[in-house]
Amino acid sequence: MTAFRSGVVAVVGRPNVGKSTLVNALVGQKVAIVSDKPQTTRRGIHAIWSTEGAQVVLTDTPGYHKPRTLLGARLNELVGDAVSGVDVVLHVVDAAAGVGTGDAFVYEHRVRPTGARAICVVNKVDATFGRSEVPQLAAAGALGDYDEIVPVSARQGKGVGTLRRLILERIPDGPALYPEETITDQPLDVRLAEIVREKALAVTRQEVPHSIEVVVE
Predict the structure, then answer these.
(1) Which residues pair with 151 in a beta bridge?
(2) What are the tens digits of pLDDT across the range 26-37?
(3) Distance between CA atoms of 186 and 193, rounded to whole angstroms?
(4) Where are the chain's structural domains?
(5) Which of 10, 18, 48, 194 shows the greatest Cβ crowding within 10 Å of its Cβ?
(6) DSSP for 86-101?
(7) Half-sphere exposure of 22 toward its Cβ, with a 13 Å CA cutoff?
(8) CA–CA distance, 64 with 17 (Å, rounded to integer)
(9) What would you measure as the largest C-alpha separation in the chain, in angstroms?
(10) 5-203 is classed CATH 3.50.50.60
C-alpha cells in the first residue's frame, strides 16, 4: 500500500514574477488575489492542494526585495517566516523580464539558507514574444543549486502538470494537515477583504496608494 504524503511548500521570488498566479494554477482554483502592482501579496497565504494520495500546503509570499520602507522590511520578514522549516521551496523567476540580480538576491537570502529541496520555476514563458526561453533557463540555472529548473506559464497552465509531479516526488510521507475539501486557511472576512483590495488595485493608479488595506466588518 502506498503511503500518504504531505508537505509544506514555500513559493518565493522578487515582486511581480507571478507567484500568486502560480499558486492558483497549482491548486486549480483562485485562492490568492492577482494584480500587476508590486507587493500585492501582503500576508503569507496558505493554499491547500489535495490529491488522492497526497496533500501539499502552498505558502504564497510577498515579493522579496531590498526594502526602502518599513512596510517593505516587514514584508521581507514575512517571507523569512514562511520559508522556515518547509519541505520544498519554489523559487519563481520571470522569463519575460529576464533573470537578474534581484533573483540572485532572493536565492542567497531566502532559498539557499533554508536547506530545503529547491525548484526554480521559470514563469511567463508565454510572454517572451517569440524569443527562445533557453537563455533564461540557463540564467536561472546559474543562480544556484536547484533540484530542477522548470519552464512554466502559470497564466496558461503550461508546465504546471510537470511542476506538480516534481513537487509530489519531493514531499515526505505524512498525514493530511487539512480536511480534503479545504483550499485555504484564510477566514471568510479576510478572503472578502482581499477580493475588494484586488478590485481597487485594478481600477486605480496614482489615486490610491498600493499600500491600501481593506477591513471587512
Answers:
(1) 122
(2) 999 888 755 555
(3) 11
(4) 5-203
(5) 10
(6) -SEEEEEEETTT---H
(7) 34
(8) 11
(9) 59
(10) no
